[in-house]
Amino acid sequence: KGGPDTYTVNSYMTFCDINKLRTYLEKEFRGRAIPGQPTTKSGKPYNKFVYSSAKVQADDMENVEAVSDAIRAMGYNVSSNIDSMKKQFAMVQAVLGGIGAVSLFVAAIGIANTMMMSIYERTKEIGVMKVIGCSLGNIRQMFLLEAAFIGLGGGVIGNVLSFLMSAAINALVKGKEMGMTTGQISYIPLWLVLVSLGFAMLVGTAAGYFPARRAMKLSPLAAIRNE
After folding, report:
1. Residues 6+ away with beta carbon under 8 Å from 174
2. Are 71 and 56 contacting, i.e. CB atoms less than 8 angstroms apart?
3. What is the pLDDT of residue 222?
4. Burial class (CB in 10 A: 0-12, 13-18, 19+), 194
């Protein structure tokens, strides 16, 4: 598929139905050895069609080893690059995980700093709430919810940027040219989006815990007198 100027991973290959190809070759080379097929010592072809190799595709990466063992049990040699692929994926995940951990730590510090500044600016407001009977639990809940929504907002922005970057990668790098059937080299599942939003809220809540405790410990009278 594609024009003569379109390069893909299969540009130097021809694919066809194996049974039709076999029928055509046996008819074309009737009584002679088909090129690429083994022959007897006298040069005559065998009465059976011999395949030099077969490509087997597992339905899932986790099943590759089981399929390989089953093929070996049948007496065939098996060559698989699953181990090298797993190592490469592990290295990529470790690098991206390290970058994400640093970004997460910086974001948590930013949320904690924002919440602390919010407490300083609303000290008098917190004192008034305590004087009129607002419980410490309600004050803590208010600041934790605020921190959680800051984290949620960051998670939404991060997911939007991720989808934009994923679309840009898929537009620039054609997956089918690399032999991928889906044509997408970058894919973000829905469950990952939901987990990332929940995790962002969790990080925001954790970052706002100590500022919320500080708001709880403020003296009502000192807070009201604060200018």
Report:
1. 183
2. yes
3. 67
4. exposed
For residue 143, give the nearest of 170, 114, 165, 169 by alpha carbon.
Answer: 114
Residues 6 or more apart in contact with residue 225 via CB below 8 angstroms: 127
Q: What is the pLDDT of residues 28-45, one digit of tens each?
A: 888 788 888 888 887 787
End-to-end C-alpha distance for the chain, whole angstroms: 74
CB 205 within 8 A of CB 144: yes
Q: Does residue 154 contact residue 198 with C-beta atoms inside 8 Å?
A: no
List CB contacts of 104: < 8 A, sequence separation 6 or more.
203
Record the tokens describing residue 221, joined without a space: 């009278």
Q: What is the DSSP letter of 39?
A: B
Q: Which residue has the tokens 């405790």?
A: 213
Distances 91 to 62, 86, 95 between C-alpha atoms, Å: 18, 9, 6
pTM: 0.60
pLDDT value for 223: 66
What is the rounded distance in angstroms from the CA atom of residue 177 to the CA atom of residue 160? 27
